[in-house]
Amino acid sequence: MTVGIDAVEIHAGKLRLDLAETFAPAMDEDPGKYTKGLGLHASSFPDVHEDIVTMGANAAHRLMERKGLEPADIGRIDVATESAFDNSKPVSTYVAGCLEKVFDGDFHHANKGERKFACISGTQSLDDAYNWIRAGRNRGRAALVIATDTALYARGDAGEATQGAGAIAMLIDENPDLVALSQEQGFGSADETDFLKPNQQFPSVDGKRSVQVYLARMREALEDYESVAGRVHSEDFRYVPFHTPFPGMVRKAALLGYRHMTRGTAIEDDLEPAIGRQPLPDEFDDESGYRDAVREYMDALKETDQYGEWYDRAIEPTLDIARHVGNWYTGSVHVARVSALRRAREDGLDATGERLLVGSYGSGAQAEIHTETVQEEWETELAALSIEDQLDDRRDISFEEYEEIHDVHNHAKESTYDALTTPSGEFVRDGQGPMNERT
Ligand code: CAA
User: Fold this and answer.
1) Which of the listed residues 2, 34, 125, 231 has the most CB atoms within 10 Å of its CB?
2) How far apart are CA 120 and CA 102, in angstroms?
3) What is the pLDDT at residue 411?
4) Which residue CA neighbors atom 46 of ligand 1 most closely?
5) 432 vs 81: which has the higher pLDDT
């Protein structure tokens, strides 16, 4: 049985914070730190009438409308988020409540849940939906997986430049139109405290350490995947979408992934004159000097044609959207997949049958590697997406507006700040708390 992602829709936060023009001068930083170092140009930012429910419901509504679905066609709704405002009731119940206002029928007989494991919970929800369908418990119905986050940091935190807000809704079904999921998975998991949100709106992050934990868990997941699916080679995959907190993080992950996938191959032989065969340290801690080793290795690799060509083909296309929206936490790796397929369409590539190696990650910490195969109707699905319009229509905000709106989204603070955009035909946050209606 082929099970996978049948369709996706995205909702990007309505505001845009330009990192080079607006954020860097206010931070007294060189814009190159953001555009070149982190690889980010802008954040998508939520207007005051947007939250995780409205963004998720708007993406899901567009998805269901486009696919001609009614609530009776959906047997399961899972929301993945690390921005939840209720520790008991799942966000999917609010989203279902919104959708029931505009569709005939209701979701009475759908199983609703919420997944939490930092950014990897979007992929875990996908896995849950896959297992539910493969187990034959779906009664012919599809699953709706919604990854939605307002990925905001406290002002002054190093993570502030990587903020973003948006939702991605995915329809999981048999005989999918977009990508089929592999049965094999690999995991790397350990009890870590690199990123925590103990009942607070903004995370407590050890940013530098979180980068090391990401790399270590990702490598373990790759090794675990190989233990069940056999060796993976860099040339087996057209695209390699990674969780993208910022593109600079993916540059590091790509480097290690490439090194792992080419070990013992003819490519490694070809690379030897340029980079030698010096192994990288096994442990990604400060004492191991991994930063210097990675930088040295990356600098040498960057100069090689082999790596440059692979990176431009397999990694760069996955970053097109992230560069302009920032981190969407649970949605981020799923945006990277869309980004790659969007580029395939722009390049006129016949991607049917191409394989993707997907690297998901959540702080705390866990990485997952699985593979996907692009399905025949992928191009029709991509053509139906409205990403360009959504990104172009965002309103640019000044630094002063950014500060006001950032305060509004800090749940601890009341604010009467007016919305900067005028919503039309969409779900909006209605005053205080998670009450949502559709304008
Ligand atoms: N021109 C070009 N490059 C520049 C530059 C300039 N003018 N100034 C700095 N840079 C480079 C630096 O050399 C650095 O590159 P390397 O990483 O290759 O060394 C890069 O820009 C970033 O500079 P800093 O390391 O000085 O940046 P920072 O310390 O202020 O912030 C961070 C980096 C700690 C990762 C911060 O962004 C952060 O805390 N982010 C949130 C946590 C995060 O995203 N972690 C990622 C892994 S955890 C995860 O993935 C889960 C999740 O979604 C949160």
Assistant:
1) 125
2) 30
3) 66
4) 211
5) 81
Is 390 exposed, middle or buried, given 0-12, 13-18 or 19+ CB atoms closer than 10 A?
Answer: middle
Helix H or strand E encompassing 10: strand 3-12
Residue from 23, 28, 30, 33 whose mutation best tests the ligand 1 pocket (most atoms within 8 A of CB) = 33
386: Cα within 13 Å, side-chain hemisphere: 13
Rounded to whole angstroms, what are the CA distances from 380 to 8, 67, 114, 384, 413?
A: 11, 12, 30, 6, 44
Residues 116, 117, 122, 127, CA torsion sign: negative
Residue 368 token pair: 């997952």
Question: Can you give the pTM of this predicted structure?
Answer: 0.96
| 339 CA → ligand 1 middle, Å | 22
In angstroms, what is the span from residue 38 Cα to ligand 1's centroid?
A: 6
Could you tell me the sign of the dihedral formed by the alpha carbons of 50, 55, 57, 59, in that order? Answer: positive
Active site (catalytic) residues:
82, 119, 243
Delimit the domains of the chain by residue range: 3-438
What's the CA gap between 59 and 170, in Å, rounded? 9
The beta strands (E) that lie in 52-192 are given as: 74-80, 111-115, 142-151, 164-174, 179-189
- Domain 3-438 in CATH 3.40.47.10: yes
Q: Work out the pLDDT band at 106, boundaries 50, 70, 90.
A: very high
* C-alpha distance from residue 68 to each of 73, 103, 347 (Å): 10, 10, 29
Which range (213-227, 265-279, 280-294) has the least confidence? 280-294
Distance from residue 186's CA to the centre of ligand 1 (Å): 27
Strand duo 395-396 + 15-18: pairing = parallel
Q: Which of 204, 211, 335 to mutate to test the pocket of ligand 1 (most atoms within 8 A of CB)?
A: 211
pLDDT value of position 435: 52
How many CA atoms within 13 Å lie on the side-chain side of 215?
28
Atom of ligand 1 nearest to the CA of 29: 7
Residue 3 has pLDDT above 60, yes or no: yes
pLDDT at 113 over 90: yes
Alpha carbons 366 and 117: distance in angstroms, whole number: 8
ipTM above 0.90, yes or no: yes
pLDDT of residue 199: 83
